[in-house]
Amino acid sequence: RLLEARKIGDQKAIAIVSENPEGDSEGKMGRRREEIEFTSLSEIKSLTNGDEEEALGAEESNGRLTGQRSRVRSQDHSDSSRFLRWDKVAKSSYLNYLLLASPFAIISYFANWGAGPTFILSLLALIPQAQLLGLFTEQVAFYTNEAIGGLLNATFGNLTELIISVVALNKGLLNIVKMSLMGSILSNCLLVMGSAFIVGGISHKSQRFNIQMASTNSGLLMMCVLAIAFPAVMVETETNRSAQAVLTFSRLTAFTLLSVYGLLMLFQIKTHRHLVEGDREADEDEDEEEEQFLSWKESVIWLFIDAVFISGFSKLLVDSIEGSVKDLGISKMFIGVILIPIVGNAAEHAAAVMVAYRGRMELAMGIALGSAVQISLFGIPVVVIAAWIMNRDLDLNFSLFQTVVLSGSVLTVGLL
């Protein structure tokens, strides 16, 4: 049974075919990849042997398959099938075991166990919820075309950080917001990529990656750091510079970065998609295909529910920050730069290290640098604009020390 067909020539396509449509005892289907020739879309459909199918983004035009991909799906809404679908959600990541911390975080908050326990439990509860948010976003993306799917994944990939930032803004913790955003960039550039290099180097003597895409991401990061560094330079070099001037400049910079982010989406999804995909066809031979197992309605509903839960636990987390500084004896900088970024990036961190261990360094670098670029071009400007709407004076004036650390980290990545 045909699972996916991707056009690679006028009359050629790469097909992912199921060798065992019914699945084995564990419900897994064997897959093989082969190159096929065709003259029309109907010829491709004939491989499905009459199964119920849904071809996305494909059409018959002048005897060519002009869409980006064709997917065959079989929908079974029986009780057993529904149980299997949610079993896959539960087993999607070992991080889901941390969901057990959720009720204890709520009890700790309302039973006054203390700010320290509430902070730790809320932090643990948010990690799997951020991972599930990414999973549900991917399931929604299966029902869209490539452009919308890529935009959904890019946007909702930062939703956890944005929600925590907005909740912290509402409480007036502006420094925590700035430090957490900076910490997200640092953790992706240093912790994630460094871990990927070490793990990948241990398991493989040589590693390959797409130098063009890596250079593009590094250049974008350098541009973002320069834009973010300007307010700090203005404050340090001109003593008469007013706070309002720095704030105005920061807001203009935010709109500029958002514009660049829009151009980046156009670059990745439309004009230079082949650079982003890299060796995706080769990767498909090594790992399982991404699988669609939730209906569109289920995916959207649970995406919304998960976002609501993230908002609630973000409030518990932010409300306990001040008290946890005293109870746990840790600084606000450590909370903002180290702990909070772990919440939204833990699943991506684990994924980057795992794929590096399998020798897919290009994908590992794409995860690390891509996430850092999204925070820089999308997360930071959106938070600055959101603060403006909320009547909070959040600027991009990081301290001189923070600016130097951020610049040095990005420069190190760019020179690798």
Automatic annotation (TrEMBL):
Broad class of the protein's primary localization: membrane
Region (Disordered): 49-76
Sorted UniProt keywords: Antiport, Calcium, Calcium transport, Ion transport, Membrane, Transmembrane, Transmembrane helix, Transport
GO BP field: intracellular calcium ion homeostasis
Subcellular compartments: Endomembrane system
GO MF term set: calcium:proton antiporter activity
Name of this protein: Sodium/calcium exchanger membrane region domain-containing protein
Organism: Amorphochlora amoebiformis
